[in-house]
Amino acid sequence: MVGRLQPRPLVCVLGDLLFDVIVRPVRPLALGSDVRAATEAGAGGQAANVAAWAVALGGRGRYVGKRAADAAGAVLAAELERRGVELVGPVVDGRTGVVVSLVDRAGERTMASDRGVAPELRPDEIEPGLLDGCRTLHVSGYALAWEPLADAAERATAHAQERGVEVSADISAATLVDEAFRGRLERIRPDVLFANEDERDALGGELPAPTWVLKRGPRGCVFSRDGRVVELPASKADVVDSTGAGDALAAGFLLGGELDEAAERAMRAAARCVSKLGSMP
Predict the structure, then answer these.
(1) Catalytic site residues?
(2) Alpha-carbon Rg of the chain, whole angstroms?
(3) pLDDT digit string (tens) for 153-195?
(4) How many CB atoms neighbour CB 229 within 10 A?
(5) Is 103 within 8 Å of 23 (Cβ atoms)?
(6) Neighbouring residues of 123: CB distance < 8 A, sequence distance ≥ 6
(7) At what angle do helices 245-254 and 46-56 cross, to 10 degrees?
(8) Which candidate, 198, 204, 164, places its Cα nearest to that of 185?
(9) Domain 10-16+44-95+116-274 has CATH 1.10.579.10
(10) What pLDDT is stored for residue 2 in this prediction?
(11) Can you tell me the distance from the alpha carbon of 248 to that of 112, in angstroms, rounded to the nearest whole number?
């Protein structure tokens, strides 16, 4: 469980490292024509984002996943390493995935995703040593939605639980939730669960974990641990782009501490993220 903040706690995150392309048009798109836009391109993917934010917020981050040995994969790996993130997992022939996020003038984003080789991580490629020194294993909801990656996620969480490592999960998108997804979530039995209101409703209206975080966008967040609830408003920020805000929030919370302390750190991280274009710190 989340405890008092330790010196540079290590958050391991299982999921994907993707090439993020963020597009913020200066006005609505014109069908068949052209409009000016601000753009940002670089490392992204929920798992990579959380690991990078953990480092930026004073902890350590380890990305666990399958990566492609293409030019894009090399660029993204170099960026994460410059950010202080450890990279573990197989590097294989194939294609790095790409996520295109279209951001409106209010900062709300709509995404189209191609996940490349990331969903191909197999259970036999998960070794217990990947969790050495780790206080939390955080699993992206995307990692529970595709096989064989979902089987690899179950293997990793089993190793974590055998070692007494906290397991955390993020639902990630309401569109991912089906019977297979619910079954995976029941089997991994997360200690900490993150969801927005649509994702909670897709699960049936409850967040099945002793510690949970309900994300409510501009209305702030509700944090609960063992029945104690803390509700915080969104931290003040000039919203530019909401891409990655939930990942920054998760990293801040998973670095630990008392509930109030972890919740406040999480909200500050989310505000820091939305005040700029792109998902990385």
Answers:
(1) 247
(2) 18
(3) 999 999 999 999 999 999 999 999 999 999 999 999 999 999 9
(4) 11
(5) yes
(6) 148, 151, 152, 154, 155
(7) 50
(8) 204
(9) no
(10) 46
(11) 20
